[in-house]
Amino acid sequence: MKQIALILSVISFSFISFSGKAQEIDTLKREKKHSVTLAAVLSAALPGAGQVYNHIAMPKGKKKAYWKVPLIYAALGTTTYFLISNQSKVNALRKEYLGREESGLLFIDPAYQQYDNNAILTLHNQHQTNRDLMILATAGVYIINILDAAVEAHFVNFDISEDLTLKIRPTVMQGYSPGLSLRFNFR
């Protein structure tokens, strides 16, 4: 009976030690590599989220990604504001021109009474061009946000230490030609 208890205790202790090692190995396997794709997808879903994801993953002392979020929203807000503003001007000018054409009056909206029909068309075209440029600018800011998150995700674990150096010094080559000497140190 004592032998059976001894054998069961040895077996149980061996399972505990094996499960502990398996848990250590499993923990090492679960340690995730920082995902570039996830950073880009997060920024595509919610602008700035990829930058926050990169900021959280960076080691202490190198965190610097969060400050871009207000800039992203300021740029998106500004371009969207001008897009909406130009679109409302386009609609107002279109309404003014069509109202003049249908009614035969000189002006419909007192804000445009100093403009003739050709000036209204010119203003309409200018605001329409500005609206189209703001659509491109908004899309550009959105795409740059995604690209920034993806590029920065590549550099989350990038090593910038004193051991990585480039030294440029003047030298004389072949005894009489001046030149530059480049020296790279990699750890």
The coarse silhouette is: elongated
The protein's oligomeric status is: single chain
The helix tally amounts to: 5
- What profile does the largest beta sheet have? 2 strands, antiparallel
Work out the number of β strands: 2
Distance between the termini: 62 Å
Q: What is the CA-atom radius of gyration, in angstroms? A: 33 Å
Percent helix: 55-70%
Instruction: Provide the structure class.
Output: mainly alpha
**SSE string:** HHHHHEE
Beta-strand proportion: 5-15%
Number of domains: 2
pLDDT average, as an integer? 82
Describe this protein's structure.
The structure is a single chain. 65% of the residues lie in helices and 11% in strands. The chain has 187 residues and is mostly helical. The protein folds into 2 domains: 1-31; 35-159. Strands 1-2 form a two-stranded antiparallel ribbon. Helix 2 (36-45) runs antiparallel to helix 3 (49-57). The longest helix has 38 residues, at 117-154. The chain is elongated and about 85 Å long. Residues 17-30 have low confidence and may be disordered.
